[in-house]
Amino acid sequence: MFNQIFESVWGQANALFYPFRRRRYMDVVVVLAGLSILFGLVTLGRQWTGIHRPVVEINLSPWALPKYTFFSMMRGLAAYAISLGFTLVYAFWAAKDSRAEKLLIPILDILQSIPVLGFMPGLVLALVGLFPHSNLGLELAAVIMIFTGQAWNMTFSLYHSFKSVPLEFQEAGTVYGFTWWQRLKWIELPFGTTGLVWNSMMSMAGGWFFLMITEAFQLGDQDFRLPGLGSYMSVAVEKANMPAMLWAILAMVTMIVFLDQVLWRPIVVLAQRFRIEDTSQGDAPRSWLLRLLRRSRLIRLWEARRVHRKHAPPPAAPKKKAASGGLKGQALFRWLANLALAALAGVIVWGAVALVLFLGAITRGTWFTLAKAGGLTLSRVLISTVIGTLWAVPAGLAIGLSDRLSRIFQPVVQVAASFPAPMLFPMVILVLAKFGIGLNYGCILLMLLGTQWYILFNVIAGAMAIPGDMKEAATSFHFSRWQRLKVLYLPASFPYLVTGWVTAAGGAWNASIVAEYYNLNGATLQTFGLGATISKAAYDRNLPMLAASCLLMSTIVVIFNRLVWKRCYKLAFTRYSLDK
Amino acid sequence: MDVKTAKADNIILELKGVQKSYDRGTGKPLRVLEDINLAIKRNEFVCLIGPSGCGKSTIMRIFAGLIAPTKGQVFFHGKATEGLLDNVAIVFQAFALYPWMTVEANVENVLKAKGLDRNDIKERTNHAIQMVGLEGFEEAYPRELSGGMKQRVGMARALSVDPEVLFMDEPFSSVDALTAEGLRAEVLDIWDDTGRNPSSVLMVSHDIPEVVFMADRIVVLSANPGRIRTIVENPLPRPRDPRSPEFLRLVDELHDIITSTELPDIQVTTVEPSVESDIVEPLPNGQYADMLGLLELLEARGGASDLFQVVAHTHVAFEKVLTTVKGLEMLELVETPKRMVQLTPLGLEFVQAGMDDRKVIWRKQLLELKLFRVVKQLLDLREGELSREEVIQEISGRLPMEDPELTFETIVAWGRFGELFAYHKHRGVLTFE
């Protein structure tokens, strides 16, 4: 990600570190890192099991920020762990059980389109009720809300990988009698790893989007707040404390860069093993951390032991009977899967009935108003996507086609895309207010703030992927700039642009919830729209209204996906694909 | 060896009355194999060879138990079996190695799946790796290896399970020619050791000298649906010399068998009936670029050539050359007396013509074919816009033994070259050019 920058900084810093490297001071660093993680976890444990205080006073001093940032990061990581577990089970089930698949995949499609806020009141009330005497309920609610922002596209990615394992890989597995577990471990999971890692990074970024809301929110007259970066920002915004806002933004950027360098970069490097293309690629990703860690004697010792264990004459294990009880085990599995499927179907029916009863409270007039709000928000989403496209496509092509610019800007754009845009909203709103622009049009700009990066980022990737010979051909034919754009650059980057659009529009829908309804300096700024309706319903604890507006939003999103984005994808992969 | 006198316990695996068909969704099931009876005896090297679409890989997979036959039975040592054989091993055409595992792990995991204990796994892995000469490569990943070395890993993996019959699915076709030479000899060496498994080998191939070099029995198949045409015993003493007259004679014999079944000389020419019958000829899936290339080649060689000299000269698999020749023959641009392929006067005219005239001839010849006339009539009926589904429906009705999608592709490709039809892939419709 930010590797190029870090590599160059690292290169210069390397000289400084030279004596340390020689004396293997890395061991000390490894031990210290281990101790600090332990300390962090103990603090976290104390916070989690601490006595329940509904409103935590947030200290706006910048010195309090590291602790808050650490808490928020751990929530994000805990949510990610849950997302990963969910993904493994759900994707495996959907890929292996063709009957369940018919139900599971549409459900996932719908879940993906429900805004996070739609889950909030129910979750919070239920979990706080479950743990009335400690912070555990509230913490869990926050973690699960982050989870709902992370899990779905990871699950889709893994499911698609499971379904597209090459036939010969499967046949070899069958011929050599792999059990389902061995297939999963040796074929299916490794095959899905590359996609899963990539989507994990995206998901983690997406999980931060609602951080301000997940850590600090009102439900009717109840005020819930957890110590964390998001609530720090919320309080700073409420009090219009500009320095604190800037500190929070800095802390967020630091956390994103930290996670990228310390967590994702090493994982990406380790996942290189699971690439499918047979050729070794020239520009392999690198991780300074991994390189550093390998210098540590402790780590080496551990690795050596592992290898040793692998090669040592092993104790004679009792001979396993091949495929013993296979049939019986399978029948049991079958039975359990059926049971789970039946339970799921039951929950869906129950949920649908409950929803219908719930929605009975909504009058026809309200539905009409909601539909108008939906239309308005849809047009805002589309306008923001169009504006984003208009500037991001030329900019993305310019960056992606130049080696120098892409080296500089790609990491920057990636940080920008991972940054939760709602944290920037207050500043933009203040600027807009100066120019006398209300939230009605202003919220388009706010949405744009969160979504344009996805378009830019994908177009850069698309432009970088245009094969050199095609560019050479365009040069040799003396194509004008405009011809090149029309004949080569736009078509070749179109598949990437579509991915950018889909992500951007999804992000814009989410952003509408925050952008159309914002609490700033004690006042509530709002404009008419579906996002504002959802926010307001959540804050007023008007559950039927919340259900109705979320239902409408996911319906619009699902229909729009089916009618527009699916066709764009089809076009991109049939006509504009560069493979074959 | 006489099949009838062979004792029953001398037979390891046997297919009796095997038929295989695939459900194509709506229409009638597509039959790919018909009445296959074949036995693999102890210490025997059997090769399957035949034109494309003859189902040779399917037969191998039915033997292995990977695919269940629609009708008929598989017998293992005289007992009817169903499902995967014990200790079955296949060497795959595209290797099917797991790229995230080292060479050693690729072999070891197969043995782990069998539930062997650790010492045994270690021992067998080392032995298998040593058998194919991969020592020193244990910790390498498949992507670091060349095609030939990858296939060695595939062989080590297969041999490690100690299979009684080793199945090989065109094992040398993804390997360059020089490496293939070496691998063939090594496979024979490994098989030749009668004291040890694999006792027998069943190999699918598309290379005639290769099967003559390796096989004891050569099973020649014909296509649509796949049938056993004949089984040729190969009595040549081993080691075999590919340049010896006996070897060349056998290669020649196989050439004759294949040309006589695939390109028969006695064409059944019926008198044109007054009412056109519903019967259409199946369309070979020849690529027009190959067809043009073959015509140019023939012209350069004075208008005629031996079919298998073309194969040897171009290094193209004979199935592909056969398909190309069949396509040209259908368009009456070449004739095939015995094993010769020669230009017809029209073919000569075509080759010597410019691109525009070529297209005129091509178009005229296409419309001589019933299938193209049918599609054209349908297109007229639908006022110049015909959906892909409708054409496929029509094809599967008229050619129940053919893969309708493949035939449709050929119609589109040939029709496009003749500027007869245009096909719009996104909308899935055929129109006039």
Question: Explain this structure to me?
Answer:
The complex is a heterodimer of chains A (580) and B (433). Chain A has 580 residues and is an all-alpha fold. Chain A folds into two domains: 1-273 and 286-304 and 333-345, MetI-like fold (Orthogonal Bundle); 361-580, MetI-like (MetI-like fold), CATH 1.10.3720.10. Helix content of chain A is 77%, strand content 3%. Chain A has helices at residues 3-22, 26-49, 65-96, 98-113, 116-130, 136-163, 167-175, 180-207, 211-215, 229-238, 242-271, 288-293, 297-311, 326-359, 364-401, 403-418, 425-434, 439-464, 468-476, 481-515, 530-539, 543-574, and strands at 216-219, 222-225, 517-520, 523-526. A two-stranded antiparallel sheet of chain A has the order 1-2. In chain A, strands 3-4 form a two-stranded antiparallel sheet. In chain A, strand 1 and strand 2 (222-225) form a beta hairpin. Chain A starts with a helix and ends in a 6-residue tail after the last helix. Chain B has 433 residues and is α/β, with parallel strands linked by helices. Chain B has two domains: 8-258, Rossmann fold (3-Layer(aba) Sandwich); 288-432, Foki Restriction Endonuclease, Chain A, domain 1 (FokI Restriction Endonuclease, Chain A, domain 1), CATH 3.90.241.10. Chain B is 42% helix and 19% strand. Chain B contains 15 helices and 16 strands. Chain B has helices at 56-64, 103-113, 118-131, 147-160, 177-192, 208-214, 245-262, 288-300, 307-314, 318-330, 345-352, 355-368, 370-381, 388-398, 404-417; strands at residues 11-22, 30-41, 45-49, 71-76, 79-81, 89-91, 165-169, 200-204, 217-222, 227-233, 304-306, 334-335, 340-343, 385-387, 421-424, 429-432. In chain B, the strands form four sheets. Chain B has a six-stranded mixed sheet with strand order 6-7-8-3-9-10, with helices on both faces. A four-stranded antiparallel sheet of chain B has the order 2-1-4-5, covered by helices on one side. In chain B, strand 1 and strand 2 (30-41) form a beta hairpin. In chain B, helix 8 crosses helix 10 (318-330). Chain B starts with 10 loop residues before the first strand and ends with a strand. The A-B interface holds A 166, 168-169, 171-172, 174-179, 182, 186-187, 190, 193, 273-280, 313-323, 571, 574-575 and B 64, 66, 84, 88-90, 92-96, 98-101, 109-110, 112-119, 122, 141-144, 157, 161, 425-426.
